[in-house]
Design brief:
single chain, 698 residues, alpha+beta, 5-stranded mixed beta sheet, 27 helices, 6% strand, oligopeptidase A, protease, M3A_DCP
Length: 698
Amino acid sequence: MLSSKTCSDNPLLEQKSLPKFSSIEPSHLQPAVETLLASMSKKFAALESNLNPASASYSDILPELERIREPISYAWGVAGHLNGVKNGDELRKAYEESQPKVIKAFTEFKQSRVLYDSMKNVLESEKAHLSQEQVRALESSVHAMQLGGVGLDGEEKERFNEIKQRLAELSTTFSNNVLDATKMFSLEITDPADVGGVPESAKKMWAAAAEGDSEKGPWKITLDGPSYISAMHHLGVREHREKLYRAFVTRASEGSGDKNNVPLISEILSLKLEMSKLIGFNNYAEQSLSSKMADDVAAVDEMSSFMKEKALPAAVRELQEITDFTRANGGEEYSEAHIPKLMPWDTTYWSERLKENKFSITEEELRPYFALPKVLDGMFGLANRIFGINIEAANGEAEVWNDDVTFYKVFDEESGRHIASFFLDPYSRPENKRGGAWMDVCIGKSAATNRDIPVAYLTCNGSPPIEDTPSLMTFREVETLFHEFGHGLQHMLTNVEIGDVAGISGVEWDAVELPSQFMENWCYDKKTVYGFAKHYETGEPLKDKDFEKLKLQRTYGAGMMTMRQLYFGQLDMELHARYDPAGGESIFDVQKRVADVYSAHMPPIEGDRFLCAFNHIFGGGYAAGYYSYKWAEILSADAFGAFEDVGLDNEEGVKSVGRKFRKTVLGYGGGKPPSEVFKEFRGREPSSEALLRHCGLG
């Protein structure tokens, strides 16, 4: 047990409640890690010495393991979170110095033979008397130990452990390089003519970055999400868009000095292949899929080929339509004589113009109806309507890492009980926050550690408020918020009390996107949208005709978007399943080869290095798993189909199906196989019909 003096000296050791974010400094990390690892090592040694594989019971093992691991998991989770949202040189240094020690400690857990043998014996002798959640937790732990090298000895074990350490180091460096390279580039515009036709919100954002005036300039465009996307959608000067695009797809590559990720990718792929072979797999993809819904690489290939057959003809038609529109409206600059084929910095811009022309509405015209505070109210209202929960702001009841962050409590409507909480960090901060959007665990539910209130982090990189104007979101940003909220709901509404399979823990990776993508569907439900789509100044609701246009826009570009996702997924799978890092092909040769199949209609430009910023697979947890987005999208669309079947205007029907979704998909977490969970909710196996219908590809 840690002394009260030790805890009071270091906020990372104060773990009875929520993290003390206002007090945590980078200097606290290393001493906290050393203290917690020493304590954990002592307790784990005692557990090992007391375990007898022949007689150990479930209660002797997993609950004890949860209690032993929880303090370092809590502190290290906080450190990892801050590394993503409040990154800085001092924190990076402390994190990188502590990381090898943490990995070494958890590797020792996974390679304990007495622990492994005890779990195996419990599964053989007690399985009939255990709950399904207990069996899932044990099976998951046994499999994790097999993947963690428990069966290795001698030099093989030593080499495996070296690889694990190096891969963790490379992953962290990769992400830091992407963040740094993103910050390294900016484009300054001084001529007001160059921003003609650009929405006021974008001009204000760019002017604020340059400390200029939104009408007179200067304007600074960065590679941070909201800034870059606004430029590619609205900046009329082709040369500027080209410069921005080339900078974006070459981030952290050969021209980025010591932030070059090319050698890191090669080393990551080589080490993953070597590691997988050490534990009996032919490649890393086989290892990754051993703990996913998809049976094997062939199953992923089959899904991708099936979706490609549906999406590619649509993508080709869509690109031709954009090209024809551009030729007709772009003037001599966009004539076939000048540009034989549209380039990526053309298609994004002109696709937006075509969409505006088709639907007579612009993204900018919709923004005033999507003010973040109103969107949150509507989203929380939906959660009450379908899941029977109330969400209340509780700012001031938790310390936060930035003034933009808000804190909420979740209550069960029927009982009034406080059942969960979450932090929301909604805006981009390019100076110290990594790009993208994600949900992560702050505190997980666990009876063993007396944690009954799960807490989530919801992180987005949306458009920030400007002066007195609230955050006015693009519709895509609204969908992203709903997406991350869906992840958070699965974490927060779990009914499972075994930490290893509560919430998102233990959920197969290709099913974990089901709740998140499911929630996006509600952005096209009239009652939901009219719960928040009100003009931020006048309170006027979104016009019916504009909502109908919004729904029609849903399938706009669906073919090209689907092919883009399939391209990323198959490139990821090719690199981890069939690519030989020691062979004659480079990673960019592989990219071109996969693009010839999945992006032939719009091939990457010469010198494209987007792989160098592909954080999902090289800096995150999606290696040989990016296909999961499309796999889970089939599940999520079909799940939403259950609500469509009863009628979205049928309040009692929607409520009934929503409570069933809460009980099954959200409630069971990792406590049941996702195929069983889906079948219990839907009453049958999943079908791709709903997804194809939603995308207009059926």
